[in-house]
Design goal:
- It is an enzyme of class 2 (transferase).
- 30% of the residues lie in helices and 25% in strands.
- By secondary structure, it is α/β, with parallel strands linked by helices.
- Strands 5-4-3-6-7-8-9 form a seven-stranded mixed sheet.
- The relative contact order is 0.12.
- The chain has one domain: Rossmann fold, CATH 3.40.50.
- The protein is globular and about 50 Å long.
- It starts with a helix and ends in a 15-residue tail after the last strand.
Length: 226
């Protein structure tokens, strides 16, 4: 990790690019929630990618991170956060920490963020990065994300950053009444759709929000590791 002084200098160099991304990539694609736009504007995405990828940090594209994983494109992160309809009082579970960027955005939108990463190396890196940047309301765990996080449940929203063939069973059990699950579902990348499930009176109401492409969700209630 860079020193604090290096972080400040890097941030100053990327502020314009971040604001341009918000105006040209998010607003023009109908991301209108002011809280989501503000949260995206507060998080320095350049700190969540490799040094080699920093010049591309505000392109609207996924980028490689360690352990052969990726950081989602800014639009996808903003879309899922907006779909979760957060007001700032919620406890949120994120599945798939990756570099920690999504959790950092969520930290500005919710009261508490619990995020689960199955790859220990990424979880360690994300923990250190989030702590360095002052995201004190984010808690990182290493585990099978398809199991949810029963020790911290119930949640007001569960956001899943990888695609399963069907909704993992534990998620509904860990959701508060009127809670939302945002998850891509589909058997392959060409057939994936983003879903929002809302729990009302013990039943999940289902909405299809559009087509997306995600890596597979690995775990007991997801895909098997290759």
């Amino acid at each position: 990790m860079s020193s604090d002084s290096e972080f400040v200098q890097s941030d100053n160099n990327f502020v314009t690019a971040r604001q341009t991304m918000i105006e040209e990539q998010l607003r023009q694609r109908d991301i209108a929630d002011p809280r989501v736009l503000d949260a995206i504007g507060r998080v320095p995405r350049e700190y969540f990618v490799s040094p080699e990828s920093q010049r591309f940090a505000y392109n609207d594209s996924a980028l490689p991170i360690d352990c052969h994983q990726t950081i989602s494109q800014p639009y996808t992160v903003a879309f899922m956060c907006a779909a979760a309809q957060l007001t700032g009082t919620e406890t949120v579970l994120e599945i798939g920490t990756g570099s920690g960027y999504g959790a950092a955005v969520l930290s500005h939108l919710a009261r508490e963020v619990h995020t689960v990463e199955r790859i220990p190396e990424l979880a360690i890196q994300a923990t250190e990065r989030l702590q360095r940047l002052g995201y004190d309301n984010v808690h990182v765990y290493t585990d099978d994300g398809t199991l949810g996080l029963p020790q911290a449940a119930p949640f007001d929203a569960i956001i899943v950053t990888a695609a399963a063939e069907q909704l993992p069973e534990p998620y509904q059990e860990q959701l508060n009444e009127k809670g939302r699950i945002i998850i891509p579902l589909g058997s392959d990348s060409t057939g994936q759709r983003m879903y929002r499930f809302t729990l009302r009176n013990g039943k999940l109401l289902e909405e299809v929000l559009g087509a997306f492409v995600f890596v597979p969700l690995i775990g007991k209630f997801g895909h098997r590791p290759e």
